[in-house]
Every structure is written in structure tokens, then in C-alpha cells.
Write a structure and sequence with these properties.
Main location: membrane
Pfam families: BPD_transp_1 (PF00528)
Largest sheet: none
Oligomer: single chain
Strand content: under 5%
Subcellular location: Cell inner membrane; Cell membrane
Number of helices: 15
InterPro entries: MetI-like, MetI-like_sf
Structural class: mainly alpha
CATH superfamily: MetI-like
Keywords: Cell inner membrane, Cell membrane, Membrane, Transmembrane, Transmembrane helix, Transport
Radius of gyration: 23 Å
Length: 280
């Protein structure tokens, strides 16, 4: 293995600073008052308003109804992110299991039909999806936020490729032991798929957590607003001489980074293993 030279370290340090500086700037700016940010711009040094700002955004009721807190928006984002990730993993595994192990002659055409949905981003099908959920009275509900986004061609593709690499001897051994399709799936495939499940979970949690367009369409009740909507609502406030609460918006932005970061850190080893290895 070639030893890194000082110039390589310099490049790495500059790259790390380039990525970290905006996050540090957002955090430091959140510790100053909105007036200071409005007059002097962003800060790279700490201010005296940090605890008051974070306490206010998490506990003080606000919004147009005066009944929504930052903690409520964090909870809504968590429900959306977890429901999104768990639902996609479960649905993708079941779809891939049916495609690989039920040996239907239509399995390959069905898989490619599912795969072509990758060509249809959410923005293309968002209005039909909204109309369907509106007719089902699913607006301003958690299941209305989560269920329409559960189908995942990407997850189905990865699990299908993984299941196809599982040796047939395992299936034959399970049959000899009297295991049915459900037992084989739960007792053999699910434990083998843990790294892949973790990798897909991390990707989908971050994707669901950062959703903005779909929650904006589906929710008009502030009790269902997510953090992304909360940040946007704060920055839209500009009444007379009142300036937007920049510090609170930065505080919410910093809080919005914490759960995805924790998920990545906790599942880091399984995440890397799921994307790079396929040990069985």
C-alpha cells in the first residue's frame, strides 16, 4: 500500500474543511440572535443565545395555530423517516423473494416492469398520487404521508440480486428439514440479509427524513408538519419590520441533521458491509 504524502493530507484536510464549514457555520449562527445575523451575516464564532434558541424551538409553541413545537416536528419527521425506511425494506424484500423463489415464468418481465418505475420520479406521479390519497381521505394523516412512497424499485433490485446469490443448497436443505416458504424466509433469508437490510434502511431513512415536496402537498394541518416544512415556514415570515427568525431556522436545520447522522453512525458497519460484501 502506497504511503500518503503530505500533499495528500493537505488535500484531505481541505476537502474535510470544505464539507464541514457550512455545518459549523449553521451551528454557530444558531447561537446568535436573529437581529445579529440580519445585520452581520453568518458567524463562525459562538454567541450567547444558543441554549435559549434551542430550548425555544423545541418547546415553545408557535406556527400559525400557536400549538406546534419543534419537538412535534421532529417526531413527525421521525415517524415519516422510520415508516418510510421500514416499509420500503419489508416491501422490497417480499417482492424480491416472490420474484426469485416462486419461479414464475412472468417473474423476469414483472421485475423489469418494476425496474422501469425508476424512470418515473416522484414529481412525475405526484399529482395522481395526491388525487388518489385525497379521495381516500388520507390528507393530514401519517399513513397518507408514508404508504404512497413505499414501493421501491431500487430496494427490490438490490434484494433480488442478493437473493439470487444465495446458494440453492440452502433452499434444498430447508426443504429437507420441512421448512415452508415462510419459515425459510424468516429463519434463513432474513438473518442472511441483515447487512443489506441495514444498507437499504439507512439510505431510505435519510431519503424519507429529507422529504419536502410530498409532505408539503399532503399536510395542511400544522400538527403533521415535518422539520423541513417548519424551516421553510420560519423563513417565509416577513411581516412589516419583523425579520425572520434566522437563528431558529438554523437551529432546526442543525437538529434536522442529528437523527440521520445517528442512524448512519450506529449502522455504519452493517451499512458498509451491505453495500460492499455479500457473505452468506
Amino acid at each position: 500500500m502506497q504511503k500518503l504524502k503530505p500533499f495528500d493530507h493537505l488535500i484531505l484536510i481541505l476537502g474535510a474543511l470544505f464539507l464541514v464549514t457550512p455545518v459549523v457555520m449553521a451551528f454557530m449562527s444558531s447561537t446568535h440572535s436573529a437581529a445579529e445575523i440580519h445585520m452581520h451575516g453568518l458567524f463562525l464564532s459562538p454567541g450567547a443565545e444558543g441554549l435559549a434558541t434551542y430550548g425555544k424551538v423545541l418547546t415553545q409553541k408557535g406556527g400559525f395555530t400557536g400549538e406546534v413545537t419543534g419537538a412535534r416536528m421532529v417526531m413527525n419527521s421521525l415517524i415519516l423517516g422510520l415508516g418510510f425506511a421500514v416499509g420500503k425494506v419489508v416491501l422490497s424484500m417480499m417482492a424480491a423473494y416472490a420474484l426469485v423463489y416462486f419461479r414464475s415464468r412472468f417473474a423476469t418481465p414483472v421485475f423489469w416492469l418494476i425496474f422501469t418505475t425508476l424512470l418515473l420520479p416522484l414529481e412525475v406521479r405526484i399529482m395522481p398520487s395526491y388525487q388518489v390519497m385525497s379521495s381516500l381521505s388520507a390528507l393530514n394523516t401519517y399513513w397518507g404521508l408514508i404508504v404512497p412512497l413505499l414501493a421501491s424499485a431500487t430496494g427490490t433490485f438490490y434484494f433480488r440480486q442478493f437473493f439470487k446469490s444465495v446458494p440453492d443448497e440452502l433452499l434444498e436443505a430447508a426443504r429437507i428439514d420441512g421448512a415452508g416458504p415462510v419459515k425459510f424466509f424468516l429463519d434463513i433469508l432474513v438473518p442472511l440479509s441483515r447487512p443489506m437490510m441495514a444498507a437499504i434502511f439507512v439510505i431510505m431513512f435519510v431519503y424519507g427524513w429529507n422529504q419536502y415536496l410530498w409532505p408539503m402537498l399532503m399536510t395542511t394541518d400544522e400538527h403533521f408538519f415535518t422539520l423541513m416544512r417548519g424551516i421553510k415556514s420560519i423563513l417565509q415570515v416577513w411581516v412589516g419590520s419583523q425579520i425572520p427568525d434566522y437563528n431558529e431556522a438554523f437551529a432546526l436545520a442543525v437538529l434536522a441533521m442529528v437523527p440521520p447522522l445517528l442512524v448512519v453512525v450506529v449502522l455504519q458497519s452493517l451499512f458498509i458491509k451491505g453495500l460492499t460484501e455479500s457473505d452468506k
